[in-house]
Design goal:
This protein is an alpha/beta fold and 202 residues long. Helix content is 44%, strand content 16%.
Length: 202
């Protein structure tokens, strides 16, 4: 079982990275493989609703988005994390997620369906709840069970050193990772026991 941790921050090892590393550490303790995927430093343009993905099977803009969709098929769970800009999640991550989810769905690839997911947000002070709500909307649209923790999945700090001092935030990430691991193990066990995934409605 593998979880893909998407770092939507332009800062390679900033506050979002601190949160994802804490999750990765705990997943490893739970014998769940994981990988941090950095894309926040890339120039990701937004979706233009051209619907070419329904013809091509992928986004018309052949960039990081198409590469990610191919990679994502191998993973069993996802965590998308990003920093807060002006009270919500940074636009690079929303551009990326919009095109990833739109092009994979209309391109005929239901790669996210019934795979567990979680949103993580980092901020100096405010806007984390709006950021998490924004990310979670992608999951519910794609039929992805949302994994929660003992608090909202947020970590606070202006820089990594400050995020490392947010002990409640780090504990929240640890619990989130344990809950993700538990869900994945239960899902795997249910399939082994012959309990099929829900039938998709047309």
């Amino acid at each position: 079982m593998k979880v893909l941790l998407v770092n939507g921050s332009p800062n390679k090892e900033g506050c979002t990275y601190v949160a994802l590393k804490q999750i990765q550490k705990t997943l490893n303790e739970e014998n769940i493989n994981s990988e941090i995927y950095r894309m926040g430093h890339k120039d990701i343009r937004g979706c233009i609703d051209c619907r070419k993905c329904s013809e091509l099977g992928k986004c018309v803009f052949n960039d990081e988005v198409n590469a990610f969709v191919e990679k994502a098929e191998e993973f069993d769970g996802f965590i998308f994390g990003g920093p807060v800009y002006y009270g919500t999640v940074n636009p690079t991550l929303t551009n990326f997620m919009t095109r990833v989810f739109f092009s994979s769905f209309f391109g005929g690839k239901r790669i996210f369906r019934l795979k567990p997911a979680a949103a993580v947000a980092s901020a100096r002070r405010a806007g984390t709840m709006t950021a998490i709500d924004t990310i979670n909307r992608f999951f519910t649209w794609a039929e992805m069970p949302i994994i929660s923790s003992t608090y909202w999945n947020v970590i606070y700090g202006t820089k990594a050193e400050e995020a490392l001092e947010d002990l409640e935030g780090l504990r929240t990430m640890t619990t989130l990772a344990r809950n993700m691991a538990w869900f994945l193990k239960i899902k795997e066990l249910s399939l082994k026991e012959g309990i099929p995934l829900p039938q998709q409605s047309k």
